[in-house]
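sry for the spam today, last one i promise. struct tokens for design, 202 residues
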């Protein structure tokens, strides 16, 4: 319907009801494309499905950013750190977990806010994470609310919020940060390293 077509790119708009999606998918996709100088357009929608058009600017290969070098990747050392990773997208969560573990970090992974809280509550005082890395839009408790509760329960460290929708960027406390999706895993590791509290040498 025409009235719904005007709303589909609005954050949190969904026709699936309470048990359906979050309503953030199309808004996130369009935000990512707009930040790259393009546009996402609805062409048609009917009983047989919906067609979108993605328009992106052409880029001269000589002007494209080079991927991080092996030397840059090797510079990120997270040895001795513990990170609570909260991400409902299994592919992103698994990739980030493997990458950060490869940098030396110990990862506690959770797919939603309630699972993250349950994992945190099982830790002893000397096992608390050094940093919480959380998506802003996660089931069963959003990232902002999760961090607030964790701090009430004794988490003293910084938080790194991630989201594909930049307008969800929270008001951050000193020491916290926000990283917009999409990002290279090397960039994620560098931001984590910048936020981690200084660890004693040796």
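last one done:
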């Amino acid at each position: 319907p025409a009235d719904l077509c005007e709303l589909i790119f609005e954050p949190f708009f969904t026709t699936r009801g309470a048990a359906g999606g979050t309503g953030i998918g199309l808004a996130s996709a369009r935000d990512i494309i707009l930040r790259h100088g393009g546009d996402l357009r609805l062409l048609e929608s009917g009983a047989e499905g919906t067609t979108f058009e993605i328009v992106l600017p052409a880029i001269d290969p000589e002007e494209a950013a080079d991927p991080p070098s092996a030397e840059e990747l090797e510079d990120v050392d997270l040895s001795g750190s513990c990170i609570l990773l909260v991400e409902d997208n299994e592919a992103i969560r698994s990739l980030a977990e493997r990458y950060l573990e490869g940098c030396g970090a110990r990862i506690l992974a959770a797919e939603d806010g309630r699972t993250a809280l349950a994992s945190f509550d099982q830790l002893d005082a000397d096992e608390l994470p050094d940093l919480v890395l959380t998506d802003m839009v996660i089931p069963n408790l959003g990232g902002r609310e999760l961090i607030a509760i964790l701090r009430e329960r004794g988490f003293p460290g910084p938080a790194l919020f991630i989201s594909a929708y930049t307008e969800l960027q929270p008001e951050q406390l000193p020491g916290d940060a926000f990283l917009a999706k999409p990002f290279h895993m090397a960039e994620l590791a560098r931001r984590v390293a910048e936020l981690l509290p200084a660890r004693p040498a040796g």
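The longest helix spans residues 90-102. ok im logging off now
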